[in-house]
Design a protein that fits this description.
The chain is of the alpha+beta class. The protein has a single domain, classed as GTP Cyclohydrolase I, domain 2 (2-Layer Sandwich). The chain has four helices and four strands. Strands 1-2-3-4 form a four-stranded antiparallel β-sheet. α3 packs antiparallel against α4. The longest helix has 15 residues.
Length: 117
Amino acid sequence: MGQIKIEGMEFYAFHGHYKEEQIVGNRFLVDLEIETDMEVPAASDSLEDAVNYQVAYRVVKDEMKRHTSNLLENIGKRILDAIYNELNGIESVTVTIRKMNPPMGGPIKNVSVRMTR
């Protein structure tokens, strides 16, 4: 068993509860952790036997850009659904989505949601 981590994927997107967030947009950082059996690709040295993390990145990018969500939880669910639809050989996936500088009435670095399936 092993883990693939893609950390700090940065996107500018238009997610949020408030209409202003959906118009102006915000920076989001996304981390992805994929648990998978790495024995076969480690021996074969073949991408066909591995979980392709370039495909995982594309899936996250597509979901961040596709349409507006009110909640980070909705984005997380969409990413998890899409990862399982696009990739084989996954034992579990954890996604962390951080909204940078959220509009909460004071200086806050970020808020985040972490979901595992």
